[in-house]
Amino acid sequence: MIMLKIAMKLVWPLVLLGASSGLYATDKLNLEQAIELALANDPRIDEKQAFVRKAQGLLQEAEGSEGWRYSVDSYLALATGVDGGFYEDGEESCSGACTPRDDEYDFDDGLSIWGGLTFSIVKPLATFGRLENYQEAAQNNIMIKQQDVTLQRDEVALQVVKAYFGYLTARDSRLLLEDTRGRLDGALELVDGWLEEGSGEASLSDKYALQAGLGLIDNFLAEANGLEQIAMAGLKLLTGRDEELIELADRRLQPLPLPEQSLEEWINLALDNRVEFKQVEAGLTARRALVKATRADKKPIVYAGVAGSVAVSPDRDTLENPHIYDPFNHAALSPLLGMRWQWEQGAQPARVVQAQAELDALVHRASFARLGIPFQVREQYYSMQAKHKAIDSMRESSRAARRWMIASYSDFEAGLEEADDIINALQVYVLAYAEYLRAVNDFNNLVSKLKSVSGVFQ
């Protein structure tokens, strides 16, 4: 029962893991190939890569903001028609008392189509650090998102390791129960034969004890078969081979080689290779740039370019007077040099405070990372060493329990022991071997996790 609970803890999380299509349709699948399949097809990695492309787009936007800017506004409308000049009754000129015409809203001359176009082409000349700092922040943001891809790949690979060794653990657990059942079944046949012969070497209590043991084993075996199938389904899901038969290259669960590096070497590897350090450095650079860019928002933008305006109303006579602007019929074009200054007295300083606070928070996070990551390495290293010792002890324990089981079975066949003795020996053997399998599975996962927290897993 204990062994099955352990197997369920090892295998059940596999149903929650995911990946996509496979490459190895006929060959036996080893751990490296399974990881390769998952990394090539896992949609979560594609999601992180999409965020990289978004970050690249932000950089393109920041770089493009210092280029030419185009603005065009066109319209088509109706206006009243106008014939004649500026003065009353449409006179072009006058003498004496001159009265301007006042028939602006009269429709005596009908209506006229009114079309216009305004445009500008300008380029920033100086932003006082605004665009430069946004570009620097965008470049470092790309690096952060690229490291997110690395972290996601690492997570997927660790899930494959857990699924792969979890399946081997479930399969070996089933084989253990099948072996145990075979021995109990053989013992029951002996008891039935002795009872039929009336030899007196067995009693009904022996038969009932063995039948009870077989019933329990059959129950555990049914659960073990289910767990093994779930484990295989999880591994198929990870490798994207849902419709294919998978045969693993490993014939049984074996412990990985114990890494030779010392704890100090693992810590140095982590300090040199953990992508979180690279992310923190890039994040600090990006945040400093954003703080500078936010502060630069209070400074003007100097720009240069050309602007123009055109309007045509064919049923209105053109007013050709340099002192009076005619919005219905005109054409204008000029180079320009300008400055735009936008300042929000209350909001802009607050934005600087927010940006500075986020920078301070990132600095504190960087300080904790330099302390926390070495602790992660120590935690995995000591756990791995402890599990390696546990494997050795449980290997010897399971071997001794197996010898006890075989000896008890032989004594039972010779009529020297009762059924309770063989059941006790089988129970100890199952428990010891199940603990050995659990220790091997945990050790293999800890080896991979140690490589992961040291930044050298892939």
Total of helices: 9
The ordered H/E elements are: HHHEEHHHHEEHH
Morphology call: elongated
Instruction: For the record, give the distance between the C-alpha atoms at the N and C termini, rounded to a whole number.
Output: 37 Å
Largest sheet entry = 4 strands, antiparallel
Model regions low in confidence, pLDDT < 50 over at least 5 residues: 1-26
Strand neighbour order, sheet with most strands: 1-2-3-4
Query: What Rg is obtained from the alpha carbons, in whole angstroms?
Result: 41 Å
The tally of strands reads 4
Helix content: 55-70%
**Coarse structural class:** alpha+beta
Which percent range describes the beta-strand content? 5-15%
Average pLDDT number: 81
Helices, strands, pairings?
Blueprint: H1 2-11, H2 31-41, H3 43-64, E1 69-80, E2 111-126, H4 130-197, H5 204-239, H6 263-273, H7 275-296, E3 301-312, E4 330-340, H8 347-413, H9 419-453
Antiparallel strand pairs: 1-2, 2-3, 3-4
Helix pairs in contact: 1-4, 1-5, 1-9, 2-4, 3-4, 4-5, 4-7, 4-9, 6-8, 7-8, 8-9
